[in-house]
Amino acid sequence: MRHSKLAVAAATLALSATAAVSVALAQSSAQPIIGLITKTETNPFFVKMKEGAQKEATRLGAKLLTGAGKADGDNAGQVTAIENMVAAGAKTILITPSDSKAIVPAIAKARAAGVMVIALDSPTEPTSAVDGLFATNNYQAGVLIGQWAKRAMGTKKAVIATLDLFPGQPVGIARHNGFLAGFGTAGISATTRTQVNTGVACAQDSFGDQAKGQTAMENCLQRNPNINLVYTINEPAAAGAYQALKALGREKDVLIVSVDGGCAGVRNVVGGVISATSQQYPLKMASMGVAAGVNYVKTGKKVSGYTDTGVTLITNKPQIGVKSSNTTFGLANCWGQ
Amino acid sequence: MTQPATAPPASKRPSLPSLSTLGPLLALLLACIFFATQSDRFFTGTTLSLVLKQISFVAVIAIGQTLIILTSGIDLSCGVIMALGSVVMTKFAVELGVPPILAILCGLAVTTAIGALNGLLITKLRLPPFIATLGMFGIVSATTQIYSGAQTVTNLPPALNFLGQTFNILNTPFTYGAVLMLILFGVAWFFLTHTAPGRHVYAVGNNPEAVRLSGIPTTRLLISVYAVAGLLYGIAAVILVGRVGAGDPNAGQTENLESITAVVLGGTSLFGGRGSVLGTFLGALIVGVFRVGLTLSGVNSVYQILITGVLIILAVATDQFSRRKA
């Protein structure tokens, strides 16, 4: 008896839920539906990207669906999200591919169903797998802090530590190599696919995490106490490096440079924790993507090719010959508050 | 038939060091000797202090994980509970202006309560620990992101950074967090080996039915174990906050596996009832020594992951082997 009552209750609940969903779908069929798939739900960069997309979607009267992988590198989760969004009637899907190659077949299926797919932040391999790419030029972001660091070091001999992302990650490699190229290391170009460690005293993976960055920096300093220039993949890793240096009383005579330009990161530039950082614009990537999606629904015109969403060097110690903006600009343009 | 036979060796265990207790010590010694030949900076006080402070918060989590695994449970939510604790204590202190000590206590209260909730789910709802804590991982991880808006909490009052401060022994700086970790290991060791409730933790892992029949309140014991583990994750959060100088909502995503690694490398059986918290300390040390040692030798850190994987398999194989002999 109890079981059958429970079953009836469950069935009623399921039916009413289905009805609610179909009503919601029917209501929204007139509205352009745009999907945004990020690498994770939790990384602040993607949280801000979602906020930017939502704001633009609300402004343009579009409906935004969001999805994400469970963790960085979760391709299967992103494939599922694509399938669900196509099923939900999305006309445009914006995606930050976790795995640049493995995601390609799922994207091809969506495009075959008439969906415009735009990669945000990271490219697919091949780049032609999507209609367009809106992203930061990560190599250029690295070059800027490399050039700045070269000027800032002056005649002092640099002993470099790099706190990288994790092995084989294209964004991490592009920033790392860009930094070294900007610093003047020979034999690196924007198309170099593997991490170059020429002239680096210590290269460690930080996974972009503050605590792991701190651990990596401590170990690098134990290996070579003369390190005086630190490249970090992002600002949490930079904050970790600073903690490690501070513990040894070395925070004043070591330059830390980074890439990202999040608000907490720029505040650390204000506070002198980070000397210079390259700022990127996730909200812009997302809002441009949403606008392109709405335009596609209205006019049937797809985007194509690569759109550089820009990168700005943020520092309060400008160097001659390296274009930069100060932290007032950086704080006004950082992602979130 | 087989159950009564397992009881006597369990009571004899402390007197005779088995293969699974000597294994981790041997692995640690071999690693140290190897790294000493690779880098002349390895056998220094600084390296020792680095290892201790780097392992401190994972090791404290691993104490809680050891207690739980001894009861033949597991906790997949430990790291994210720590992250939530770190955000609660820092946000309370920085944004609500709660006095630091009180803010820390609030953080500890939250983590202890979530630990107890895990215990309730496992005993009252009879969920397998793996499932209960897997679900809790998602709940706590998302709650932390929502509560913090995915933003790191900085500009902490000095009291919250206390455990990251250092003092010198023979010109080598040690953090108070590392000292607290060593004390907690001492307390946990004493609790498990010299008190009746400590022996009950082993007993529950060996044979919960026998424990229940002998009149020990199993449910209360299990809930207490998970609650104490939650408290330990909160203490780990204080150490983490002191170490990184910030409340970090993105911390704790991998510490569940890292703590299980320390427990397993330390020779504690994942089937419960066998093992020691000192083994866990050795297990955490092994991971820490490899991380520092490989950096000093100039080896890419990806090899640390490889070697840790190999060691885990060796450790569990040793455990199985010693079981078959016993």
From TrEMBL, chain A:
It comes from Deinococcus puniceus. SUPFAM superfamilies: Periplasmic binding protein-like I. Its main location: other. It holds the Pfam family Peripla_BP_4. Residues 34-302 form the Periplasmic binding protein domain. PANTHER family: D-ALLOSE-BINDING PERIPLASMIC PROTEIN-RELATED. It is found in: Cell envelope. CDD domains: PBP1_ABC_sugar_binding-like. Keywords: Signal. The keyword Signal applies. Residues 1-19 form the signal peptide. Belongs to the bacterial solute-binding protein 2 family. This is Sugar ABC transporter. GO terms for cellular component: cell envelope. GO terms for molecular function: carbohydrate binding.
